[in-house]
Amino acid sequence: MLFHMRRKAGILLHISSLPSDFGIGDLGPNAYRFVDLLAESGQSLWQVLPLSPTELEHGNSPYYSSSLFAGNPLFISPELLYEEGLLDRQTLESLRVEPSDRVEYKRVYALKAHMLEKALENFKESQEFYLFCQEQAYWLEDYVRFSLIKKKLKKPWWEWKELPELSEKEVLREKVVQFLFFKQWKALRAYANSKDVSLVGDLPIYPAPDSVDVWANREIFKLREDGLPEVVAGVPPDYFSKTGQLWGNPVYRWDRLKERGFDWWLLRIRHALELFDLVRLDHFRGFCAFYQVPYGEKTAERGWWERAEGYGLFETIRKEFPHMPFIAEDLGTIDQEVHSLRDHFGLPSMKVLAFAFFDKNSDHLPHNYTYNSVVYTTTHDNMPIRGWFFEELNEWQRARVLDYLGYTPESISHALVRLAYMSVAKYCVIAMQDLLELGQEARMNTPAKPEGNWEWKLREMPNRELWEWIGLVCELYGRSYNFP
User: Which end of the chain is more exposed for a tag (fewer CB within 10 A), N or C?
Assistant: First the structure.
């Protein structure tokens, strides 16, 4: 029966948002402590955002990266490097900064660059390193070359003319940085799994235009001869934006992808499943049909839809990964074709309580959920619940939330956390900001806002009382199982 089906719960907290003495969350001791706290409170999921490198000039967005395969050097832990003997005590102490609830990216980039220079001086090549380079060569070689050329020329790849020579030392350095990241990440994943905590990752649907992914795979994107996009991705005007959203990413030539047996997507999926136990498929509706806008447009108003090859892609993926460990991010402009594609492959649907109270018949209202769902209070693109309730909702909508709950709670954030946990949804994932009852000041990202995003972080780990409370909620609503 339905109430005997196993249901999991967990927390959404990006690596950058972990508390840290080094300006930004990393893969060191606090990440392990966070896993321990999750396990002790009955949580069995930890969801993060993309782990890709970020850039100051692109607002530090993990969704606008120079590579969909590489890891972010900012997340490499100084403490773990010290334990390995790659940093001395003096260097380690010089990297410490005062506690803060914001990431100061400009400062962090400089600190981590200094850290890596010191670590590279002490790094000794090993069999483990050579094996990493060999196994990851399918993306690592292109990434290293792209990154080094871009640093030297300081131009987007479509403006490159004569390419500079790259020294063996430069190439080795970039490979070592990636080796250090993936070594630390895989150790963290192994530890989390040993505690019955599964790591949930995020797979962006599109690469950034100035990325190695586009540069090295031009034939699968709609590009002009000069390398600039013919059309770019976005979403049309809707309730949330009168002019739509213009993302600017190049879109796929699905005919070419199909001709190639979707080989590039298979590499992406295989790589993601080496890092995560469960993967959220960003902008799932783009696998059914995608919205494209002519390059150079200032808004997304003059775009059109075109069909993708979702059925062919997921049939190919299922042959290689029959357990299909994915979550469909089926938000936005959704029609029956999207539901059919999702349901044909048995993928869980996303439900977001922050979207539930604008429409009396919303699919995001808990009484409309099916078991094969993943419920969130909010996502990284939303205002945390406290800010959402008091600043975004009108009087009618606030009244509807309270009528739905049946009472006026002391904490609207914790009331909706309970609502998510008690739902029938297979997975329940709560943003850490909502557990902490935070508002606008803790928002992770505001779409279309160019600055000030991705900065929120924990000043310190939440107190024992909060973990005991969420542990009780997890037990009360039958989500404190640990199972494969």
Answer: N
